[in-house]
Target: Flagellar basal-body rod protein FlgC
Amino acid sequence: MSNLFKIFDVSGSALSAQSVRLNAIASNMANAQVASQTPEGAYRAKHPVFASVLQAAGQSGSATPVRVVNVLESQAEPVAEYAPNHPLANEQGYIFKPNVSVVEEMANMISASRSYQNNVEVMNTTKQLLLRTLQLGQS
Model:
């Protein structure tokens, strides 16, 4: 029975991790077209790094929660765009925009959203199983 309760730990940690992922994606999409005067000042896409937390070494098949270990910034070079009339254009007439692909971010958002939904479903199913187990004990 205690293993069923561990499912809530694992799903809850996965929900939290996917929430961080969705926030990073939203930030990336919101800043995808933000211009900068220098390449160094351009927005860098953020990507969370996940890891499973091993609770007991040597226990195969045990439930392992997920956590965010880091949020990395993309090392991709910003896109230089010739826009001499832009207020942020440098002396050569260039502005720099993040190398963020909105299409890739949308695909990541769909993936994170589905993962979030799946973990909510796991929690709901586990809750129903626990309730039915309790009902069996009452009869």
